Amino acid sequence: MELPQVEGGRTQRVDAARNREAILEAATRLLRDRGADAITMDCLANEAGVGKGTLFRRFGDRAGLFHALLDDSERRLQEGFIRGPAPLGPGAPPAERLIAFGHELLELTADRGDLFLASLPAEHGLRYRSPVYAAYRVHVRALLEQASVEHSDYLADQLLAALDPELIMHQLGRGLSLEQCKQGWETLVLRIACPSR
Question: For all residues of the chain together, what is the average pLDDT?
């Protein structure tokens, strides 16, 4: 007598997973073909073959949807600085790891900047309470502490501000190259983490 209920629950989970995959695939196609600004929830629901309510229940809003598209890239970056090879991962001096972290985030932003901008939450300050920001902040602060930098709590936020997707996309849009952004990041890190250099 219990089996139909269990099966029903499993079917719903399979349907939910299938819907999520269909939505993300449709969003990726629309993003590639039309750009982030052209993607509305109505358009996406139609493209994915799901109801608009399903989109809002699953992702909350456009920012939540775009953030889900970034999830894999951000997970790979986190895995890289937690367990990956040096200099991004453990085994290199703190300043080298900070430089490598910034370079990776700059490359990711240059590559997926439209998604980063579209995934920014509408509520002011909400991004600073996100799990991704928290993970990046803990990492940067730990490296600053390892380098014996004073005021690491304050400087962790300041360094991450230099890697803000909106700022990076603005800099790239006004003609700075990715390489120039990387060199600027390296200069900033060395001035903070290795002032005698």
Answer: 87
